Amino acid sequence: GESVGLHLPTLSVQEGDNSIINCAYSNSASDYFIWYKQESGKGPQFIIDIRSNMDKRQGQRVTVLLNKTVKHLSLQIAATQPGDSAVYFCAENAVWGGSNYKLTFGKGTLLTVNP
Amino acid sequence: DGGITQSPKYLFRKEGQNVTLSCEQNLNHDAMYWYRQDPGQGLRLIYYSQIVNDFQKGDIAEGYSVSREKKESFPLTVTSAQKNPTAFYLCASTSSAGRQGNQPQHFGDGTRLSIL
What are residue A7's phi and psi, to 5 degrees? Predict the structure, then answer.
C-alpha cells in the first residue's frame, strides 16, 4: 500500500481477482478523502470520495474504507479488469494557511492487471 | 461536454525562455489549481485561485507565475527562474464557496514540459 510521502509501490493481480490498495494519512484533522485513477499520459480521474463522518462508501465495483483510529484508507476494486491498470492515489483534505483547505496527494500505487 | 482543457499537450522550452501553459474550464467552477507531477512523486501545488482576480502561492511557487482574469481561464507561466522545469503539469478545478476542499478536484490531461 501507499503512504502520503512514500516510494511508489506496485500491486499485480490476475484479471477477475479483487484488488485492495492502501493509503496511510498523517493529518488527524483531515476530514475528506478522495481516490483518483491516473492512466499513463493522462490527468487523474476521480473514482470515489468519503467524508470523515463515514467509514465505508460504495460505488460501481469500488469500495472505500476509512479507519480514522489508525488513519488508514483503502480502495477495493471488485473483479479487476485489464482496463483498471493504472496508478491509483489517495488525497486528503485539511485546513491549510488559516481558513483555506488543501488537498495533499499521495505518491500512488501502480496496479497491473494480468489477463 | 464539460471539462478542463490543457494545451499544448507537449511543450519544449529553451534556456532563458518563458513559456505559458493554457488551462480552460467550462464547468463554471470558481476555484482552479496548478500542480506539478514528477516521476514517482505525488502532485505538488504550485498556485491556486479561489475567485477571479485573486490567486495564492502553493508549496512550490518559485519560478512560476499565474493570472486569473477570467473565471474560465488560469494560465501558468514557467519563467526562466525555474531551473528544473521538466515535469508533467496538471490543472484542476472545483466548485467552491466555503469549504471548497470538500469537493473533488477535476483535472485536465496535462502538459508535459521539457527543456531543449
Answer: -60, 145
Chain-chain contact of B102 with A51 (C-beta, under 8 angstroms): yes
Low-confidence ranges of chain B (pLDDT < 70): 1-2, 96-101
Q: Of B90, B89, B88, B92, give the one whose Cα is nearest residue B49.
A: B92
d(CA B14, nearest CA chain A) in Å:
23
Which residue matches cell numbers 483531515?
A: A30
What is the reported pLDDT for A98? 67
Closest residue of chain A to B5, computed from CA coordinates: A43
Contact residues for B98 (Cβ-Cβ < 8 A; gap 6+): none
- Please give the distance of CA A102 from its chain centroid, rounded to a whole number: 17
Shortest distance between the Cα of B102 and any Cα of chain A, in A, equals 6
